[in-house]
């Protein structure tokens, strides 16, 4: 059984979870510090979601970003990660479904996300949840 909750404060368990989960998400990004996590949680545009098992162990996380632009409220799902030991158990689905409910409650017209093609299971999940590939180009500018 997995429970999804909004992270409302930073504690040792949250910091340790990000130290464990971040390398599973990105080999080039360090885990956020406690101060960085606190800033994300305090942000009006970011909602950090965590998935926990019955014992309170964090099995996964994601960030839902919502923002107002002239054409409406938009939402992005970012940095979805499920611990390797918990994959295939519905944790990713539960995180995404919770995020979609929050985005709808916030008045979002759309929810976007990106996923590397190599993340085949994640891509299948997103499509089962109703996400469809967009006909667009994604561009990135990198600061040195």
In short:
The chain is of the alpha+beta class. The chain has helices at residues 12-25, 34-42, 91-105, 120-128; strands spanning 3-6, 46-52, 58-69, 72-82, 108-112.
Task: Tell me about this structure.
With 144 residues, this protein is an alpha+beta fold. The protein is built from four helices and five strands, in the order βααβββαβα. The chain has a five-stranded mixed β-sheet with strand order 1-2-3-4-5, sandwiched between helices. The radius of gyration is 15 Å and the shape is globular. 24% of the residues are buried.
Give the topology.
Layout: E1 3-6, H1 12-25, H2 34-42, E2 46-52, E3 58-69, E4 72-82, H3 91-105, E5 108-112, H4 120-128
State the distance separating the first and last CA atoms.
43 Å
Helix and strand sequence = EHHEEEHEH
Choose one word for the global shape. Answer: globular
Can you count the helices? 4
Q: What proportion strand?
A: 25-35%
Q: What is the arithmetic mean of pLDDT?
A: 96
**Main pleated sheet:** 5 strands, mixed
Widest beta sheet: strand line-up: 1-2-3-4-5
Structural class: alpha+beta
Number of strands: 5
Spans of at least 5 consecutive residues whose pLDDT stays below 50 are: none
**What is Rg?**
15 Å
Helical fraction: 25-40%
């Amino acid at each position: 059984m997995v429970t999804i909750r909004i992270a409302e404060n930073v504690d040792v368990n949250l910091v340790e979870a990000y130290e464990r989960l971040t390398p599973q998400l990105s080999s080039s990004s360090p885990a956020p510090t406690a101060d960085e996590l606190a800033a994300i949680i305090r942000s009006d545009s970011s909602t950090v979601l965590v998935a926990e098992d019955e014992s309170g162990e964090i099995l996964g996380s994601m960030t839902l970003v919502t923002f107002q632009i002239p054409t409406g409220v938009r939402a992005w799902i970012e940095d979805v990660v499920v611990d390797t030991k918990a994959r295939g158990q519905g944790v990713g689905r539960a995180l995404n479904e919770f995020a979609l409910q929050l985005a709808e409650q916030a008045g979002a017209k759309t929810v976007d996300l990106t996923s590397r093609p190599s993340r085949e299971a994640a891509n299948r999940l997103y499509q089962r949840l109703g996400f469809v590939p967009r006909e667009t180009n994604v561009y990135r500018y990198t600061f040195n």
